[in-house]
Design a protein that fits this description.
By secondary structure, the protein is mostly helical. It contains 21 helices and three strands. It is globular, with a radius of gyration of 23 Å. The chain binds zinc ion (ZN).
Amino acid sequence: MNKDLARLVELDRGRCLVAHIGALLGWDQETCLPSAGIEERSEQLALVQTLEHEKATSPEIGDLLTRLGSTTENPLGAAALGTTERAYLRVARREYDKATKLPGELVAELARATSLSQSAWAEARRRSDFAAFAPHLSKMVELSRRVASCLGPERRPYDVLLDLYEPGSTEDSVAAVFSSLRADLGILLDKIRGRPQVDDAALHRSCPAVRQAELSSWLMDVLGYDRSRGRLDTTAHPFTTTLGRDDVRITTRYIENYFPSSLFSTIHETGHALYELGIDPDPAFARTRLSEAASMAVHESQSRLWENLVGRSLGFWKLKYERLVSLTGGCLEGVRLDDFFRGVNKVEPSLIRTEADEVTYALHVILRFELEGRLIAGTLAVKDLPEAWNAKMKELLGLAPPDDARGCLQDIHWSMGSFGYFPSYALGNLYASQFWAAMKASIPSIEQEIEAGNHAAVLAWLREQVHTPGAAYLPGELVERATGSALDARHFVAYLNGKYAAVYGF
Ligand code: ZN
């Protein structure tokens, strides 16, 4: 490897080490920190984050990138370099620009405003008082516009923000995908509404946390999660975190009268962990930006694929159902596999995104995408948000939120200035079903393999097509390479139609 490139990798590894130390402090805070320890922990985290920022913005990185021919306009660098080397330079340049283009005082103002805005949001949500949160939201919108103008002054502000989470996508490209999706989901929802509702009462029987923990552990093993490289803990909100190349941990939570919650959240987080553990574009670039996920949406596609396409299928449970019934200790007594399958796939429009089923989930995301685009463009005033939210909710899901806590105040994202993040959630589902269709085309027997318990066949395909390259490809390039075509919502719609015809019998 050329000397400049080797030095760049060395600096990147130093930054990565600090980032992993920060992740460890964060993981510990969520899983086992005694409550009195929080004060010093915030200081520890602030110090580590400052260190990481210093390492990410070192002028030496800028000099090396320039010497290697990588500029903002031509991030791939000198044509004489190898493909992997150029892919690395592209992601290194992108991240360096992101970290250095924001003036220090804007970063500081963002940090202060975000912390105030988040606590104002939590209190406003508790009291369902949008007016109390509105000035903070206005501030976050204004700061986000300033961020966008620093990062890409010549581009539409929302496009710049979207690009932070889903590199290469634009408001127009996402809108085009969402508009056909929205129409198709409306048709499917009407078909479902015309059928008798599924009865899932049995799934709400009490199942002690200790049994649910056994279930989670079993499923992690079944799906091929190498336990020497990860672990499971409990937290208020489930998540996956990477603390090292061989240390990727997940968490779950146990709701006593609804065990499917932990069951599917464990499968979901296992999907995220399998992705992180499978990234390996080139040992020479281990623990650098190249060995990170391609995007938020690609990450989400991996969790959703295992959770929904594999975990909520009838075939997955055929040979495992007896074991499931026994591990839940009487919870599923008298419940046939077919009823379990229908119960965990029940569709019902609801007010809260995080509780939504597979069919209505994307509609929640489309609502947020449309409204945040207008907030950032300045065509929707913050004071008019509740009214616009409620009108969209009626239009898309046929529901009227009784208060703002169950309406526009429900999610934390906007209070943190994370505009452009929401689309990743829905795009993740679309990528998942497109990967699934390509996998089925290349391994026609894949459903029989899953039924027989050979999940390694699924993992092997994902490893090769999605996991291994890490950030070497932009999400759009990755999906083309793995499936032969650009992102297309029709795969998702076809998958949903097939599944829900079986669940609802139409
Ligand atoms: Zn996820």
